[in-house]
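Appendix B, Record 12. Input sequence as logged:
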Amino acid sequence: MSAIRLAAALALSALVLSPALAVQPDEVLSNPALESRARDISKDLRCLVCQNQSIDDSNAPLARDLRILVRERLTAGDDDAGVMAYVTARYGDYVLLRPPFKATTLVLWIAPFAILALGGLATALFLRGRRGVTAGADTAPLSEDERRRLDALLRKDDV
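Logged structural output:
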């Protein structure tokens, strides 16, 4: 019984974790070479609705429109770079899943490293501040009277 459950769980997880493959049958080009190029280009373009998903995997209507646009440009005779240039000119560098390193995308490339550096600095400052704090460091030493009372209390507990 547990083997059946395990197999069912594996099948369900494979189904859930598999890519959406959102390309509809009416979008597929009859020329396999052009279709392959269209799929390769679509994997590098960001769905503007889903943001972190390629248009090849997205079911959003705008992703479908972009897939159709890519196929139209390829059918018209554009090369892969020409299609990417056309789409980028129309939607900006944001449509690329891997934006180029240039002045307008500098923040996209530097922000993760800046956040990591700030986190490291905050951790270092926190640990440096904690290093000076030790148990009893901010209290005065016991007076003779306090020491005698403490010794008496400790002896009383030993008995």
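Residues 15-20 have pLDDT under 50 and may be disordered.
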